[in-house]
Write a structure and sequence with these properties.
By secondary structure, the protein is an alpha/beta fold. It has 2 domains: about 60 residues, no CATH class; about 250 residues, Nucleotidyltransferase, domain 5, CATH 3.30.420.10. It contains 10 helices and 11 strands. An 8-stranded mixed sheet has the order 7-6-5-4-8-9-10-11. Strands 2-1-3 form a 3-stranded antiparallel sheet. The structure holds zinc ion (ZN). Zinc ion binds next to loops. InterPro entries: 3-5_Exoribonuclease, ERI-1_3'hExo-like, Ribonucl_H, RNaseH-like_sf, RNaseH_sf.
């Protein structure tokens, strides 16, 4: 029961849509800005982690939704104050000002590219945050919704509804999504603009590394999507850092998911869980925390010339 309003626990989410809910766990209490009605999947996920909705509702100020036209470089309403009043056009959650950098170790890379794909049949969302390895600041972001090549309309609509309906952003997805084969050249232009991808290195990254939560994104999904889209796998997707392995080897804790790691670190989740751009933001916050605590991030997996993936850490999450 919610002590704030007396509603049954499972109703708290729906009742306080757009506001903040607190969650208690063995690791402590953390606040969760509510998504729009994803209570069932999130509460199942939380209970599987032995985290539970806390009985107290905190009436924090509602969080403005991120303008997802802006993140994809196509907001046409920046001159309208009512739009700017209602939508965020930045990443407020990645403020590094309060960080104590005294334990930060030199890293092997100048930049990290935090990637978190969404989509099970084909990729539906491709968000990447570019993070400075020294200052831990967000340098820039790349975000595109991705239109599947093969899915028939009915199946596509179902898939988009399943992924994004709970966030109320289906129409934005339908208006903005582009094919993966068109996303990749735009992504490469963006990488080149930041000098992270240079021709001299034969399409490999320049002192930068991808960071993902798990191996699925780069080991499995990118090559699958390249096959479906009839493209060669770009050479920069040959190695990556699986944050779960870094986390395990640094803290000695098994964080099997982003939520599990955040629960153990007592970090509040920001944004909508399973919206890729928000998950990439939360993964970045775990990465920042690891570095602030003194961790050195190293490549954890590499695709060899025979295309087999080699895992470089003995102690890793299976
Ligand atoms: Zn906007």
């Amino acid at each position: 029961m919610c002590l704030g309003c007396g509603r049954a626990r499972t109703d708290i989410y729906m009742a306080h849509r757009g506001a903040m809910v607190s969650i208690a766990s063995a690791a402590g209490e953390f606040s969760l800005p509510t998504p729009t009605g994803e209570s069932d999947s999130l509460s199942t996920e939380l209970s599987s982690l032995k985290l539970d909705f806390f009985n107290v509702f905190k009436g924090a100020t509602p969080r403005k939704p991120t303008c997802l036209y802006f993140t994809q470089g196509c907001c046409t309403m920046m001159d309208q104050s009512d739009h700017l009043d209602t939508h965020t056009h930045g990443f407020l959650e990645l403020n590094t000002k309060s960080f104590d950098l005294s334990k930060v170790q030199p890293q092997d890379f100048d930049y990290f590219l935090v990637l978190d794909l969404e989509g099970n049949i084909e990729i539906l969302e491709f968000p990447v945050l570019l993070i400075d390895a020294k200052t831990l600041e967000l340098v820039d972001f790349f975000h595109r919704f991705v239109r599947p090549r093969k899915l028939r309309k009915e199946r596509l609509d179902q898939n988009v509804e399943q992924h994004f309906g709970k966030f109320g952003i289906n129409s934005i997805w339908h208006e903005t999504a582009i094919l993966f084969k068109d996303v990749i050249p735009q992504f490469e232009d963006w990488l080149a603009k930041h000098n992270v991808l240079t021709k001299e290195l034969g399409g490999h990254l320049n002192k930068a590394a991808f960071v993902t939560c798990g191996n699925w994104d780069i080991k499995t999904k990118i090559p699958d999507q390249c096959r479906v889209s009839r493209m060669e796998l770009p050479p920069y997707f040959m190695e990556w850092i699986n944050l779960k392995d870094i986390y395990l080897n640094f803290y000695g804790w098994r964080g099997r998911s982003m939520l599990a790691m955040m629960g153990q670190l007592q970090m509040p989740l920001v944004g909508n869980h399973h919206l890729g751009i928000d998950d990439a933001t939360n993964i970045t916050r775990i990465l920042q925390r690891l570095i602030v605590d003194g961790s050195v991030l190293r490549i954890t997996a590499r695709r060899n010339s025979d295309k087999k993936v080699e895992f470089l850490f003995e102690n890793r999450i299976w």
